[in-house]
Design goal:
Two copies of one chain form a homodimer.
Chain A lengths: L8 E5 L7 H8 L5 E4 L7 H11 L6 E3 L14 E7 L10 H9 L8 E8 L5 H6 L7 H14 L4 E5 L7 H10 L4 E5 L5 H8 L4 E4 L1 H5 L2 H11 L1
InterPro entries (chains A, B): GGGP/HepGP_synthase_I, GGGP/HepGP_synthase_sf, GGGP_HepGP_synthase, GGGP_synthase_archaea
EC number (chains A, B): 2.5.1.41
Keywords (chains A, B): Cytoplasm, Lipid biosynthesis, Lipid metabolism, Magnesium, Metal-binding, Phospholipid biosynthesis, Phospholipid metabolism, Transferase
């Protein structure tokens, strides 16, 4: 298994968005600890495979975070980060998809699976809409979910997800103070070194996604430098 | 922490039901590995405390399985077995009660907490009605839930719960064949040595409850002998 617990910086790539070949080289050599292939909409085996082919020549670890059992890839990847959304009333995203996946696929390589407890906090994000996550909750509710994830379920990863917008550092700080077992991920709206540094104070690992597409690889390199 | 992983036989006592003093002595000296205070209806701190007082003079380990955050006792017990029901559409019983509990109670002793993944299979049971569990599911669905519990969530306990009726040994056998990490509990309808032996072939631990009230301590002793 890869040494994912010591990653400080993950670059999240969305197979549904277009990267230029030069960007891919810049990303892969930026110092980011891993490339995570992820996304909520329109993930298919085809576009995941295409992206994997584009990045595989660089040595940086590549992992997949499937949004759905139909979007799980197994070949040529070093990890399978499988989310469970805790702050949703829809059981589908907590355990339903997982049960369906296991039922359909009998030879899952569990050694590469890293379960993630998602707490989704941007109501305008695709992931919030798809999962019907209850995003407008006070900090003590977020902390309670994170504590349940850390102590009761013992999730390897607790993931504070503001996908598409920059989150509230006070919430990430409050969560960081109760973590005992889980690695704390923060993702959402990090598009410069300052924001990377701010969230990187509290999160063990920051995840940078849209900045790659919106601002280019140069912004990504700044976020790597800020946390390393 | 108590050596709960090696228990073969648990006696589940319901604080809502009446035991005669003689029964309590017979139960506590039956060879059962632990007494579990549990129940779905009308559990209060008062009746839990009363039961605890009745059994505490015997050395057998006593654990509590709260049906609700309001029914959690902390003093004088060796373990807190906290269920999460996987086969329900109602998020309350998967993670909701847990989050509420953590929010209200800040000094939980996590060292004594043993998380249990419940798969509830008797539609007529109180636990099925309260949790709205989807009980009429084929064996492959049960096995898939159990696999998710064992491999993805890594629950210490997977609990096949037929509360109030004797279950299908083929289902328990099928689940036992996929368990890799979790300890497999079976509970429901065990009221004699034969049934204890049958389910005890597949489950690591059998849980005997109603027999104590319906048939008395003698039936309980038979179930202990059958699995030891």
């Amino acid at each position: 298994m890869i040494d994912w617990k010591n990653w400080r910086h993950i670059t999240k790539l969305d197979p549904d968005k277009i990267l230029r070949p030069g960007d891919i080289e810049d990303i892969a050599t930026s110092g980011t600890d891993a490339l995570m292939l992820s996304g909520t909409l329109n993930i298919t085996e085809e576009n995941l495979t295409l992206l994997r082919e584009q990045v595989k020549e660089y040595g940086v670890p590549m992992v997949v975070e499937p949004a759905d059992p139909s979007a799980v890839l197994y070949e040529g990847i070093q990890g399978l980060f499988v989310p469970s959304v805790l702050n949703t009333p829809d059981i589908t995203w907590v355990v339903g998809k997982h049960q369906y996946w296991v039922k359909k696929k009998h030879n899952i390589d569990w050694d590469i699976v890293v379960p993630e407890a998602y707490i989704v906090l941007n109501p305008d994000s695709s992931v919030a809409k798809v999962t019907k996550a209850l995003c407008n909750i006070p900090v003590e509710e977020v902390v309670a979910y994170a504590t349940v994830a850390d102590r009761y379920f013992k999730f390897p990863v607790v993931y504070i997800e503001y996908s598409g917008t920059y989150g509230n550092p006070d919430i990430v700080k409050a969560v960081s103070e109760v973590m005992e077992n889980s690695v704390l991920y923060y993702g959402g709206g990090i598009n410069c070194g300052e924001k990377a540094a701010e969230m990187g104070q509290f999160a063990d690992t920051i995840v940078v996604g849209n900045a790659v597409y919106d601002e280019g690889a140069k912004a990504l390199i700044e976020t790597v430098k800020a946390v390393k």
